[in-house]
Amino acid sequence: MVTANKILMPFIASALLSLAGCNLLPPKTDPPASATPPSSAIPKVYVAVPTPVSPLIVEQQHTDASGETAKQAEAPLEIKPDTEPQPQAPADLWVRIRSGYQMTVPDNTRVNNSIKWYAAHNEYLQRIQQRAAPYLHFIVEEIDKRQMPMEMALLPVVESAFNPFAYSPGRAAGIWQFIPSTGKAYGLKQNWWYDGRRDIVAATRAALDYLQKLSKRYDGDWELALAAYNSGAGTVQRAIRKNRKLGKATDYWSLDLPRETKSYVPKLLAIAEVIAHPESHGVTIDPLIDAPYFYSVDIESQLDLALAAEMAGISIEDLYQLNPGFNRWASAPEGPHRLNLPLDKIDHFTDKLAELEPLNRLRWKRYRIRPGDSLGVISKRHGTTIAQLQQVNKIKGHNIRAGRHLLIPISSEQPTHYSHSVEQRRAKIQGSGSKGKKITYIVKSGDSFWIIARRHKVNHKSLARWNGLSPRDTLRPGQKLIIRTSKSISSAPDTKVATIAPGTASPLAGIKNSISYKVRKGDSLARIAQRFKTTVTKLKKWNRLPGRYLQPGQRLKLYINVVDQSL
Any catalytic annotation for residue 317? Predict the structure, then answer.
């Protein structure tokens, strides 16, 4: 009788030989640890055990906690390849942006004209790519978190050409071009030290919050949301109501919107199309690594920016480019205490910061108060604010006494070293350009862009632009402005600067110019008389005014003395 053991023996022997065959494979030599790629990058190779004719399963036995024997099937053997795989090229951020597009590009004249413009200006696109490179990954990450259309990452191209220091005639600032009121509504601080509208981190989050809110208002219609971002929700709503009354469509393309807003969405869709198909449009889009460029460090309190740049091992220009929200030579005393730095400089900077004594974050000067000094005069002279002087010296109010001392924080370098502070940026703008003659004008009490421009026969918008300002900005007495004129200063009787010997009459004495003045809100006869160095009686006589009350928009005729206004 043939026993079961005899029948099974050949199969058992065959299985054991098969297992032994696996163990007889030559041992694998692993590469050095420094050259070993991550396990996720190595393809897995599995070698199966040959299956005998009979349904035999090779099993391992182990004893569990209860003492009973349990059976577990042997896992497949993992064998790594002897050759190291070729390294993969880093992911391209532009590919990620393209894959996140959600908006449709229509075939219409407005969009096509913008596409042609971008396609014809490859150098402009190259400049934009260079400016966007440090910021774009952060913006894409924020958009990804919110699952917004990736076209929004390109909106700064339309708004500011990715210039973090852009400032419009409408007082909009930063790559997202926030006006002051909207910036404040979305939590962006704006003070002497800091402007959150230019802060890459804060302004990006605020802009995306604003766009999301507008999108919800228009039921997910991103074209209407973008139009409202540009011209205001009120403008878009009025256009929608108008079309409804006329029985017309209320989509973006059908609305009667301001000229700028009509080209706003087409520009965004056009740049998205050009970046999606650069070869088709004959432009170059250089690969951009899909990885963070900067990291935000908590510096806890105010810090001199020149010192920060030195500790990080970068230039002051690079520091300002990553932190364009800082207006002056130091970070803001009241925060935010956040400094953006290149990723590869973080460890070095944090080590140096930990070693820095708190008092050495700024330089300090012991100042003896002189007769005639005020906190305003002292703060302006030393590049700080009245509030900081009061805080540091524990002063309540504005009263100070001559002979006493103040502790004043001062910059560690000369003002010109802080190349992107407000003062240095403005000085660079004022110094640029070579057309016409250039004169320096000191702002006086009651001056405005309109008054100064009229006096010097130039356009008030041009005057603001020459000085890196908006026509809506308020001027301060003592402020210096640059005026460019194609004519000699002496050729215009109302701008002539004369040298008058003591005791002699001015050659311009008695020469007067007639101007028309539009009354503004808050004006009074006394205020206008003071501004133009005349009297209320003369104003009433020139304009035959029966009383003292004026209405905004009312026109007044004034006869101003050239000497009084110019010298």
Answer: no
